[in-house]
Amino acid sequence: MRLCGSPVLYRLRITVTENDAHQRIAEDMAKKDGAIEVEGRVVEPLPNAMFRIELENGHKVLAHISGKMRQHYIRILPEDRVVVELSPYDLSRGRIVYRYK
Fold this sequence. Notes:
Strands 1-2-3-5-4 form a five-stranded mixed β-barrel. It is of the alpha+beta class. A hairpin with a 6-residue loop joins β4 (about 80-85) and β5. It has helices at about 5-10, 20-30, 65-70, and strands at about 35-45, 50-55, 60-65, 80-85, 95-100. The N and C termini lie far apart (about 60 Å). The chain has a domain at about 35-100: CATH 2.40.50.140.
């Protein structure tokens, strides 16, 4: 019985490249379990890539740009609608993870 040449085994084999596996792990790590995602509007830019964000419920938070947005040079301007990831430990600070077009 030849297992290596069996056509059934070729159909069942799942090939995952090393890059795909690393990307999947990175995506899982990027999503924080305790993080709260809310939408808001940029009120004012502050020094050091910080922004004052007004959330939909009226609260204002201080947020910085996430690493991926900084890496891809995504510009954030006043009046932009953004998604902010808030930490459950300090709801007055957050991370901007997405800018709506």
